[in-house]
Design a protein that fits this description.
CATH class: Mainly Beta
Helix content: under 10%
Structural class: mainly beta
Radius of gyration: 20 Å
Number of strands: 28
Strand order of the largest sheet: 1-25-24-23-22
Largest sheet: 5 strands, antiparallel
CATH architecture: 6 Propeller
Distance between the termini: 32 Å
CATH topology: Neuraminidase
Order of helices and strands: EEEEEEEEHEEEEEEEEEEEEEEEEEEEE
Number of helices: 1
Shape: globular
Number of domains: 1
Length: about 400
């Protein structure tokens, strides 16, 4: 595939300097002056195969070193000591939507997150499409008798968001993760359509009174099922808005900074960035796709039923975008903070589902965002994963888990 920008200067939004953090999280300063490693010093080593349409990988944070992989079709699998266990950790097959899109890769089990105190309370959370295609976050606990098996009967629904699957809407619930502040974050798509002139016809993404097209922030500890954190910017669940389909997002474990891979429509794929603690920001969809103004947002194409989307003020522009000459669906990743590849420290890894390219974004000595191409896999890269030691993994839709590591020269 075409190399988009080895050393392409990325877009930086000047408006970031004007926003103030709202959280008390004390972040380390962002690293600048990074020199990326030569791609020939890195390798991708398969560690597991045979998974059924994997969607997400994470760890329990309990010191066990286990990796947990969600499968779109309903199961959560464990990789322990390099071995994919036969018995699933949890099987939600009977709880998933079985409508006309049962085989569509945007319906099923999307992700999971372990409670920061999982080692003591045994709680974890799963995001999936359940009955009637609605998006769920559900709380579970691990079995008292077997740490490799969850208690299905412990299920407690935390959040339920209706979806219009009968009208072929897409972009439902995507990812859940706990932030450095201990709150649960949830990215949810705009609920619009993949094809057609009006991909977000109800303008969900720009409406801060609706949950779709957002990243939500929930307090799952104060009360059941959840509470609204007191410093959420709109006095509801919404934390960030103006997103089309933030399929994968992550916090830099060293700085607390936020990186978002927002899947585009016809023209652009984008990576967005916010410093630690900044909330209430608008990423511009559906007025903007990347840095482009949406060409369908015109009086000639709109009507009273579908009014014009007003231009948002102070919209956050992406730090990186690429056209569909270089892919079709961005897969956000993580900032590398492991110990196995010192030369990769501070570099944000991301990919594309169609091209299989894996890029690294970083800031040079002048503080400008740049990117470099590390791999051209020509695989359907659906997600990255991070273990409790900060090492990174790549998941392809064919069922493989691959570890990013330093290449050891042959003796």
């Amino acid at each position: 595939m075409k190399n988009i920008a080895a050393t392409l200067v990325l877009f930086v939004c000047a408006a970031l300097s004007a926003v103030s953090p709202t959280a008390a999280y004390q972040a380390e300063p962002i690293t600048i002056g990074i020199v990326p490693p030569d791609a020939e010093t890195l390798e991708l080593a398969p560690i597991a195969s045979g998974l059924e349409r994997p969607t997400y990988l994470t760890d329990a944070g309990d010191g066990s070193g286990r990796l947990f992989v969600t499968e779109l079709t309903g199961k959560i699998r464990i990789i322990e000591n390099g071995v994919l266990l036969d018995e699933p950790f949890l099987d939600l097959t009977d709880y998933l939507y079985e409508g006309v899109h049962a085989d569509y890769p945007l319906y099923g089990v999307m992700s999971m997150a372990f409670h920061p105190d999982f080692e003591h309370n045994g709680q974890f959370f799963v995001a999936y499409d359940g009955l009637l295609g609605a998006s769920f976050i559900t709380r579970f606990t691990v079995s008292a008798d077997n740490p490799n098996v969850a208690d299905l009967n412990s299920a407690e629904h935390v959040l339920f968001v209706e979806q219009m699957v009968q009208l072929e809407s897409i972009h439902h619930g995507d990812q859940i993760t706990f932030g450095p502040d201990g709150y649960l974050y949830y990215s949810i798509g705009d609920g619009g359509w993949d094809e057609g002139l009006f991909p977000d016809p109800l303008n969900n993404a720009q409406n801060t009174h609706r949950l779709k097209g957002k990243i939500l922030r929930l307090d799952v500890d104060s009360v059941r099922p959840y509470a609204i954190p007191p410093d959420n910017p709109f006095a509801n669940e919404v934390w960030q808005y103006g997103l089309r389909n933030a399929w994968r997002f992550s916090f830099d474990r060293a700085t607390g900074d936020l990186y978002i891979g927002d899947v585009g429509h016809y023209d652009r794929e984008e990576i967005n960035f916010l410093p630690a603690g900044v909330s209430g920001q608008n990423f511009g969809w559906s007025y903007y796709e990347g840095t482009l103004e949406n060409e369908t947002n015109t009086p000639q194409l709109r009507s009273a039923m579908l009014p014009l989307v007003p231009q948002p003020e102070n919209a956050i522009m992406p730090i990186q975008e690429y056209t569909h000459d270089d892919g079709c669906s961005v897969t956000g990743g993580y900032v590398y903070r492991g110990s196995g590849i010192p030369s990769l420290q501070g570099i944000y890894l991301y990919s594309d589902y169609c091209s299989g390219n894996i890029w690294g974004a970083y800031r040079d000595a002048a503080g400008e965002w740049r990117t470099t191409l590390f791999f051209d896999l020509q695989q359907n890269i659906v997600s990255f994963g991070e273990d409790e030691y900060g090492e990174l993994y790549v998941l392809n839709y064919g069922g493989d888990v691959i570890k990013l590591q330093a290449l050891i020269p042959a003796a």
